[in-house]
Amino acid sequence: MTATTKIGIGTSLSRVDGAEKVTGKAKYAAEYNVPGLLYGVTVSARIAKGRITQLEENAARAVPGVVDIVSHLNRPKQAWLDHSWKDELGIPGEPFKAFHDDRILFAGQPIAVVIAETFEAARFAASLVEVAYEEEPHNIDFTASLAEKFTPSYFKRRNTYHPPKKRGDPDTAFANATLKLEAEYHLATEHHNPMEMHASTVEWHGDGSITVYDKIQGSQGDQAYLASAFGLGKKNVRVVNAYVGGGFGSGLRPQWQVQVAVMAAIHLERSVRVVMTRAQMFTHVHRPECTYSIRLGAEHTGKLSAMINDATTSTSRFENNMEDIVVWGMMNYDCPNASGEYTIAPRDTYTSADMRAPGAATGMTLFEIAIDEMAYKAKVDPLEFRLINYSEVDAMNETPFTSKALREAYREGADRFGWEKRSPQPRSMREGRELIGWGVATGMWDAQFSKTAARAVLTADGRLEVASATSDIGTGTYTVMTLVAADTLGLAPEQITARLGDSDLPTAPVEGGSWAAASTGAAVQLACQSIAKRLLKAAEKMEDKPLHGAKSIDDLVFADGAMALKSDPSRRVAITEVMTAAGLDRIEVEETASPGIGGMISMAQKSRNTHSAIFCEVRVDEELNQVRVTRVVSAVAAGRIINPKTARSQILGGVVMGIGMALHEETFADKALGRWMNHNYAEYHVPAHADIEDIDVIFVDEPDPEVTPLGVKGLGEIGIVGTAAAVANAIYHATGKRVRQLPVTIDKLLHP
Amino acid sequence: MIRFDYARPADVSEAVRAGSGEHAAFLAGGTNLVDVMKENVARPLQVVDINRLPLTDIEAREDGGLRLGALVTNAATAYDPRVQQRYPLLASAILAGASPQLRNAATNGGNLNQRTRCYYFYDVDTPCNKRNPGEGCGAIGGVNRIHAILGASDQCIATHPSDMCVALAALEAHVQVTGPDGDRAIAFSDYHRLPGDEPWRDNTLRSGELVTAIDLPAENFSTHYTYLKLRDRLSYAFALVSVAVALRLSEDGRIEVARIALGGVAHKPWRVPAAESLLQGEQPGERVFQAAAHAITEGAVGQGQNSFKIELARRAVVRALGQAAAGTPQSQTDKRIA
Ligand SMILES: Cc1cc2nc3c(=O)[nH]c(=O)nc-3n(C[C@H](O)[C@H](O)[C@H](O)COP(=O)(O)OP(=O)(O)OC[C@H]3O[C@@H](n4cnc5c(N)ncnc54)[C@H](O)[C@@H]3O)c2cc1C
Ligand code: SF4
User: Fold this and answer.
1) Complex ipTM more than 0.85, yes or no
2) From A620, which residue of chain B is nearest by alpha-carbon distance?
3) Is B232 in contact with A685 (Cβ distance < 8 A)?
């Protein structure tokens, strides 16, 4: 009867979809078996740039089971205006349109799809399609592309881009600084490669409508895009993405496999599935390569006096993908003089894309290496250095934060890690032949909120369904929805079904930017509160007036399937009883959570961010330079934590990915061929189990009722930001070698 | 579908008969062959599944050595008590490779005959002399971080990726083969070959020949040995450089016999007798180790991205010699380098 037994916000709940996933019941895009399904296998361009002069299809068409081949020569009608191909991200430029014409824009571009009765026939036939090309000069090399770097004009920028705001007189301050650092940092190209490959199963209903089972991070954006690009009309397209096997941003935009699958379905008027191969997964989205030159000036005390940033990231020749690279240090540190430049450099690849904490994972991480370097120059402990330059406000936008418990994160992280035992000199800690290094870095990410709707349906048996068109890309949205509903209505999680990943459900944005938990959570709470209000009304009509005296649901406690008076918990009534007494079969409500006027004002006046402090221990073999990351403590300030268990998993995953960024992930380009070469999991390295030892996650207390309705800031991305810097800084502390190019591989330590 | 005939013979002679011919391939664990078939790198027309052949035993040999059947899995070999006790170098090298799942499927014969991991070899949209003779070598001047620094040719700079074979080279195993012309034993150092003008030939097996067993000699170096592997992550990655060392020390601690084999650096496990003889009769120590490390990498040439391997190989040799001499071999579970 007491709130202590209640499962709700703050309870560690195992994923509600866990059993479905591990038993294989959870269906992913390529697992929907619809009647009469055909299989499409896509032929990829061998060359990086030029034109297709001939497609020789006879051998492929002769393979038994082959139904047809679709290419630019016979594809169905596509929308002509680029505008009709804009997705939710709205990257400026000419969106990629598969089979649009004979032009080749990047190696691996889809140029034809072979459709057959079996996957095997399609796959074999696809290998027989002979393509003749007229090749043109191309460039995949980032360094060479810097010759063409530019700042897009205002109308050709991503609308999420935040231009750096200059303050003070950084050039003079730098010139006059006692301590100066001037260095160039670099991050290699990384490919997202979630476990599930991009796949689409298009079900052709025969009445002009289709259902698309797609790997996508937002069903409704995909629905609108497909409807517009192929002139289908929104009501004729339903997109289902109930389960998504990882995204990391690769599914923010509809990818080419869905274009190809939909075109094949329209062309043949049949159901078709298209799945990218793992090698093809390495030909599309990727985290942009980045070069970042940083100049820092400081006084001998370690107080920063100047920060001059200049970064370039890679994009394609047809779209201007942009990230916020240089602003993070400018926001985070108290320094009177700061400026930033940012350009993008086009190369002949597919457009780079948002990948977990886009911008921050690159910019904040590289900046945090520079900060570390300056701390050594000033002979100040790197943690102390960050505290000396701590900013209580967003130093670039000159706005207060809704909350910033970074100081607490530094302190709690340092305590847990044992930072005070650190010996300041590089190469001063060792055990046998291993040099030991301790490094620290700061992480920062946005706490965003997006307008989201949710529906709640309570039935007389006391079961509740909550639904929203949001997605769960492995982040735990199903579980968050369940917990928030359990919290609001006091129901057991087993009584609750969460539904998501279907464009037919109430409106929700694409899942990205770490806003899903805060936004969907708020919408579910609103919907459940609406139900609570109806229940109270119904209870008021009950003869024995069990809740007499309650003026609003704020006077009630919802727990154990019942509602009770806060002032007198013995006055309670079961929810099912209320339903029965009122003769209600079901209560259905839909509510939309949006920032509201208060929220909008707050957004204009205050910065909303998550922060983290990452501490890392590495052990580096003195002669052979093998690096082991033996300990990481990630202390995160992210507002209220809905589900500590899945929240911790998010940070663990982010830290692992950060270790990969520090030591492993890199896609190698062949410059002559203009293609990515290590396009498989054996040769593109992410951390293996042996690379991961202790990871300790701390959530520091950060009450913040203002940031979002639930006080939740979101956690999907903060775990990766800065982690690679903590590793690189620890490597420096261990070895005295400063590697400014990530990943820090053995060759770079051998010949620094 | 890529049509191929599939045979699953139950005896060796039948397998040899079925496996003769240009377009035949033996299928063992399939962890490599199936991949190259899926990538269209190889398109055998006759797949001879040898998993029913009676080559699944590990047996003692009269001379005191051990015979490892070609179809014994890598895992079963590494965990066999006789191998663990008497040939810990081999067990260690196997366990340094791939993943438990792969080692459970991979066989000894397959491990010997696995193809290179050169990126270009696996990507049919790029030039590769090994896959398509005369097409050119994409890796030369291309992405060659993992390629050879020793014994390469201007036609091919690929490496042999096996860990197991590096230990077998140091142990001076023999490969037992049978073929249309009968049985023969091939000394391990003659089994794999350098690319030269025929980069498509990985080894000296003749057409239709089947590996039936690997013979380990009686001398097993079970006290002074090590397998040290350096790679881009701590497990489940091919070697950038690996070293197998086997030493026999006399009672006064001098080196009587030294064997050093390098992996990840050439088209075959790399041994240099002159480097080994520099150690003979010497007390173990930094000076002689350095000399041997330089001698074994003599003539090494970098291709740019892989040039770091030369220095890395030298340091690895010195370290591995130290581990072996001290009797403190590298653990394959504790990733700290001993
Ligand atoms: C992701 C990945 C990582 C790996 N990492 C490592 C590593 O770190 N270190 C390492 O050493 N290896 C590694 N491997 C390779 C692995 O060890 C080999 O794939 C395996 O040993 C091959 O054995 P198999 O029985 O599966 O051979 P199969 O794939 O069946 O055959 C391979 C080749 O050998 C031929 N063949 C097989 N048996 C015989 C025989 N008896 N006589 C003649 N020819 C024969 C086949 O025709 C084929 O050409 C890795 C593989 C993968 C896929
Ligand atoms: S190194 Fe050998 S295997 Fe690699 S591309 Fe060149 S020829 Fe082919």
Assistant:
1) yes
2) B336
3) yes
Burial class (CB in 10 A: 0-12, 13-18, 19+), A623: middle
Of A190, A434, A577, A717, which is the active-site residue? A717
Angle of helix B164-171 relative to helix B88-95, nearest 10 degrees? 160
My answer on whether omega of the bond before A743 falls inside 30° of 0, hence cis, is yes
Domains and CATH numbers, chain A: 32-137+195-246+251-282 (3.90.1170.50), 154-190+286-448+604-750 (3.30.365.10), 450-594 (3.30.365.10)
Instruction: With beta carbons under 8 A apart, name residues in chain B contacting A624.
Output: 230, 312, 315-316, 319, 337
Alpha carbon of B84 to those of A80, A105, A459, B60, B79: distances in Å?
68, 55, 64, 14, 6
- 8 A C-beta contact, residue B137 and residue B156: yes
Known catalytic membership, residue A56: no
Interface of B with A (CB under 8 A): 1-2, 40, 117, 119-120, 122-123, 125-126, 138, 141-143, 145-146, 230, 232-238, 240, 308, 311-312, 315-316, 318-319, 335-337
CB atoms within 10 A of CB A462: 17
List all residues whose CB is within 6 A of at least one atom of ligand 2: B 116, 118, 120-121, 128-130, 137-139, 156-158, 199
Report H helices in A628-685. Answer: 644-663
Sort out which chain B residues have CB atoms less than 8 A from A682's CB and list them. 117, 238
Establish if B87 belongs to a structural domain.
Answer: no
- Residue A182 makes CB contacts below 8 A (sequence gap 6+) with A293, A294, A295
In a domain, B18, yes or no: yes
- B103-148 confidence digits (pLDDT tens): 999 999 999 999 999 999 999 999 999 999 999 999 999 999 999 9
Angstroms from A698 CA to nearest CA on chain B: 27
Alpha carbon distance A392, A400 (integer Å): 7
- pLDDT band of residue A657 (cuts 50, 70, 90) is very high
Instruction: For ligand 1, atom 36, name the residue with the nearest CA.
Output: B110
Interface touch B311/A121, C-beta < 8 Å: no
Q: Which residues of B touch A691 (CB under 8 A)?
A: 233-235
Range of the domain at B27: 5-52
The answer to whether A258 touches A223, Cβ cutoff 8 Å, is: no
Residue type, A651: I
Task: Tell me the two tokens of residue A448.
Answer: 């965003």
Q: Are residues B233 and A685, on separate chains, in Cβ contact within 8 Å?
A: yes
pLDDT category of residue A511 using cuts at 50, 70 and 90: confident
Tokens 């109270």 belong to which residue? A536
B251 Cβ contact partners less than 8 Å away, ≥ 6 residues apart: none
Question: Six-digit token pair at B251?
Answer: 């009672």
CB contact under 8 A, A746 and B240: yes
Q: Which residue has 């990818």 as its token pair?
A: A255
